[in-house]
Design brief:
12 helices, globular
Amino acid sequence: MEPQRAIYEPLNALRGMAALAVMLSHSAQLTGQSLVPRGYLAVDLFFCLSGFVIAHAYDQRLATGLRPVTFLKLRVIRLYPLYLLGLGIGGAVAIAAILLAPPASLTVGEWLAAAGFGLVFLPVWFATALYPLNVPSWSLLFELVVNAAFAALHPRLAISVLFLVALASFGALWWLSPPELSGGSTPATAHIGLLRATFSFSVGVLLHRLALPKHTLPGALPLLLAALAPMLLSIGPDLLIVAILFPLIIAALATCRPSRLDRCFAWLGGMSYALYALHAPILEVGAALQRRDLPLPSWLWFAVAVAAAHVAYRYYDVPVRRTRMLIPEHRMGRP
């Protein structure tokens, strides 16, 4: 029998807060300015959390015979239902724009290409975004790439090798990236996206391999971090936040004691991926209505996105995967 894995609900809280930060960073289309100007860094936090989570859930299984192809299949299954739903909503929004508000950003032919490639998780290279029907999907592509590399190279990924990979990718980012570490979503910056994923994912795996002590810090620590987030995100260059602050936060939360807030933290973690996958086309609907002089309060669209994420996670994503007996739920970040 597989040993019981630890539960890290504070990391689930962090995942939920990161998803909210990404959504609010995309608020400019509704409000005229981003409510979380450096919210794009939450994507790097996702990559680092993913490295920790994947190492937690799969290190032992890969070391004892889980085939890389099987692992990658499990990862695609984990990501695909909500990815497909986001693609469908984004595709419907884009079709509405083509029919009702020409000239749209995509032609019918480009829409067909983006939808066809998107169905098999592939990007397009003719548009301004790798995934024009649902722009945030770019990070899922690089998530799968680093996951595949992790599984294929797992026997060789000693701590020293992971450290060298992290160091090399950090050096490349320092050399190639602009002052804002926001590249990755477009064909011109795809290499930056891959480097961001490689660096932060490697750091996340390293954090897990360090065998951090458990139950040493207060379980309510995520609330303090949420209160301090605006200040923390303004303390230095993007790369230093990603390389120093985020790993320190993950390490601290991984050592937290259980608390009465754990159910709330579990909910935040549960809906986080759904919110990430669905928020962009939902906010685009709000922006389109504003352009047609049918405005609704911005906060209402944020609430709609969170509610849609909750419903999609609970009544679509989990049942689909459980019904088909595809992958068990891992409460720590649900890898």
